[in-house]
From TrEMBL:
NCBIfam families: thrC. Its cofactor is pyridoxal 5'-phosphate. This is Threonine synthase. It comes from Tsuneonella deserti. PANTHER family: THREONINE SYNTHASE FAMILY MEMBER, THREONINE SYNTHASE-LIKE 2.
Amino acid sequence: MEYVSTRGSQGASIDFEGATLAGLASDGGLYVPREWPRLTGTEIAAMRGLPYPELAARVMEPFVGDSLAPDRLRALCEEAYGRFAHAAVTPLVQLDERHWLLELFHGPTLAFKDVALQLLGLLFEEFLGRNGGKLTIVGATSGDTGSAAIDAVAGREGVEIFMLHPHGRISDVQRRQMTSVLAPNVHNIAIDGSFDDAQAFVKRMFGDPELTGRFHIGAVNSINWARLMAQVVYYFAAALQLGAPDRRVAFSVPTGNFGDVFAGYVAHRMGLPIEQLIVATNVNDILHRALSQGDYSAAAVTPTAAPSMDIQVSSNFERLLYDAGGRNAAALADQMRQFEASKATRLTNSQRESIAALFTSARAEPADMTAAMRWAREACGELIDPHSAIALHAARASDLSADVPIVTLATAHPAKFRDAVERATGQRPSLPARIGDLFAREERYAELPGDYAAVRDFIAARATPAR
Ligand SMILES: *Cc1c(COP(=O)(O)O)cnc(C)c1O
């Protein structure tokens, strides 16, 4: 399988290993497979009842190509998904006769990002081990991504991670999930400043010759193709349980950076009969405006109870615009340059038509989110987190015909957002046993001033040169 950049010429391409280690393409675009692999109905039906790691290996095999032998891919899936606290890995829970909840939060850090990052950590180790290279991951976090990334690479050979967080501005649970990981390749840095300051430092590092000259600087955000690929699997898992390929299924997805719902689009392109993908947003509704009116324009971010959906720019939307525009990389590069310069662009009519054939969108107000949490608790006995509640609201407001089951993706464990869940339902979720001793664990992190040179020098003194 070859990968091309959404902004590049169709001529230049790299393989799966190259796309995994590169993250962003050098022309600023995102890597996508040159064509979508297609499965027949018979091939999909033959996947029914497989254990999750086996299903994962079969769904991902066409994307991995020659970069990994099939047995090796299967072994990595078994290792990654063996660390989940539920034997089904992503269990499907029934809410009522039509609504289902796909629980994606049984990984080590209680967020759906574990599903992809646990595998990504192993892929980094595997590929770096082949050529003896060393990767230095730098990142900034306001909470969830940092802990999932740290857990995924802790103790892995060839990888070091430096994770910046704003000192005193994340919750105790979020901080402890990162700072209590004591593996020597994990470096937590609390900086004196805001999340935006931390993120600006990280962006600057990618262009700083003092770092890029000596180190292979890498990223773990969701622009990495391997992360999206790993997320395609649970769409298959859920649809197969509900009768695919003989029955069509819809999904409602709490959306921020458009990675999770794009994985659903990939499953559809592979032949999984998906009736509709519902893009659920909170009041930070750039995607809802883009999908319903063609208006892709960024506004100021409003902080909400669902912080992972508080976004201005949805990086992976570029991948959908590329396909919807007939894979015209030059036209897309112009459209994205316009968006980057003026923070606004319009979708073309053909992009809108092509997208509307599969996608719809909904925006949830805070009161809609609260009502969905209450309904899940009172009618179904389920506690759900604010992100999942926004998608459940969108699913219940859907006008699809009643014979199509709708699966709502549950992206965080309710205990990660205990205060918001308690405010809405009156019940405080308890931390699962596997992280129940979080507050008794030793913590380790460096405190640095909000000064770029201080942070850069700290990293340069500790990272391992590229080779
Ligand atoms: C990251 C995240 C999301 C958004 O996922 P995207 O792939 O960025 O659209 C939703 N819910 C939770 C809990 C998350 O951590």
